[in-house]
Give the backbone structure.
Amino acid sequence: MSEIEFRSEMTVELVRSNASDADVLFAARVSTQGEQTLESAQSGDEATSRDRGLINYLMRDRHGSPFEHNSMTFYVQAPIFVFREFMRHRMASYNEESGRYRQLNPTFYVPNEKRNLVQEGKPGAYNFLPGTPEQTALVQAEAEAQSIAAYESYQRMLEAGVAREVARIVLPLNLYSSMYVTVNARSLMNFLSLRTKREGTHFPSFPQREIEMCAEQMENFFAELMPLTYEAFNKNGRVAP
């Protein structure tokens, strides 16, 4: 049997992008100036105060379509239960590895000691508090034991000639999967507004920590690619236009 691995982190890589603030300016100005060229729209250090003002205006007054003329593709490794939350957004194109066509690797998510474990509050406004050392040890021991047992069951069925698509039914939600996610800035801002917890947002969110770990990494790439758009997003309460 393959060696079982336990992890507590999420992997997010930017594999390709066609995204800049210039894309927003290019798309927005066609409405008042007609045909544009990308060369005429500057971004980053070359952007003018007028450019910055236009992007802020679009964000503030929620003229959202200019933020759709770009693309970012991410490679994500995370537990299956995180992918379920991703796909509820219906805001991106997804392609995930398939347990029908390949044998799944024995890599499982187990929370580390930094993961809050105790829930209090009401639905939609939960707070999570640190667990005791005993609770942390219990979560880790149970998650590891169940993961090992499930993967051994999966292996026994495969060795007996059972199809992969049938054998996988015993695998738990903490199994890591991988996928490509392609998204534009407008959709990504909507995702970030819901899956990160930040002070000063117009609409506070209370995401599960594991998907927030993915969202934080995606946000870092977004901030680097489109700094003026990212600045306006934060300035206007992290509301997607």
